[in-house]
Amino acid sequence: MRIIFLGDVVGHKGRECLKYVLPGLVREKNISYVVANGENAAGGSGINLKCARELYDSGVDAITMGDHLWRQKEVIHLLENDPAFFRPFNYPPGTPGNGFGCIQKDGLPPLGVINIQGRTFMAPLENPFNGIESAVDCLRQRTNLIIVDMHAEATSEKIAMGWLLDGKVTLVVGTHTHVQTGDERILPYGTGYLTDAGFCGPHESVIGREIEPVIAGFKTLRPYRFPVATGDVRLQGVMIDVDEASGQCRSIERISRKLEDVVGTQAHSTDTDR
Ligand SMILES: [Fe+2]
Ligand SMILES: [Fe+2]
First vs last Cα of the chain: how many Å apart? Predict the structure, then answer.
């Protein structure tokens, strides 16, 4: 059984990329489940109902989040009502929504999903290394197939989480930096691991945003608006092949596909909700 995890979907170009690239990829690779990080889906910051719907319509089965969780006010509806929508597990007690849970499609075993957020160079949520094993134990009562999205800045935090969860989950994959790393591997007890999945969106950019305003911001230290860029749109993530019975990862492969290679060079949408 194969599963795809997609890195942060950024803005309208990221959503458009999923719409045009993902269905073909799912057919071509015979994918059973798709999980995507949606923390940048709406205008590059946060997610709203329309953008979540677009991701699901493109073939995403579960959405994870990160530090942009609260940027769109409609997120509360997703947190309170959508069983396939996950925010970082280690937000303080009482935070609405779920940090982990199971999704299930007809004819397939359930898939456990856990979203966690690192603390190095990020808001100090609860310690992600505490409590994670009890979340895993809880999910393992229903399934051996568990995907962990570790949303973090520091590579060391993500790598440590991979080792902590080796043999307990199917995949530990990092998000947040928007830069795909080349360190995919299968850890000794069968957990697939990749430090960062990259991002789905415009790569002629500074991690998804127009280049010039970001440079101007660094030069002047003044606040600038950082519009989502438009060029060189790519879908990035990771695909794993999984042994359903054990939940172990049999193979792991990075994905990076150019939208242009799938649909040509014309503009694809007039959507102004960047
Ligand atoms: Fe993030
Ligand atoms: Fe992000």
Answer: 35
For 149, phi then psi, to 5°, come to: -100, 110
Q: Which active-site residues does the annotation give?
A: 68
- pTM of the entire structure? 0.96
Q: How many CB atoms lie within 10 A of CB 141?
A: 8
Neighbours of ion ligand 2 (CB under 5 A): 8, 39-40
Does the structure show a pLDDT above 60 at 272? Answer: no
Give the CA dihedral 207, 153, 102, 147, nearest 10 degrees.
Answer: 90
pLDDT > 80? residue 147: yes
Has domain 2-261 been given CATH number 3.60.21.10?
Answer: yes
Domain assignments of the chain as residue spans, ordered by start: 2-261
Ligand 1 centre distance from Cα of residue 158 (Å)? 13
Q: Alpha-carbon distance 55 to 182, whole Å? A: 26
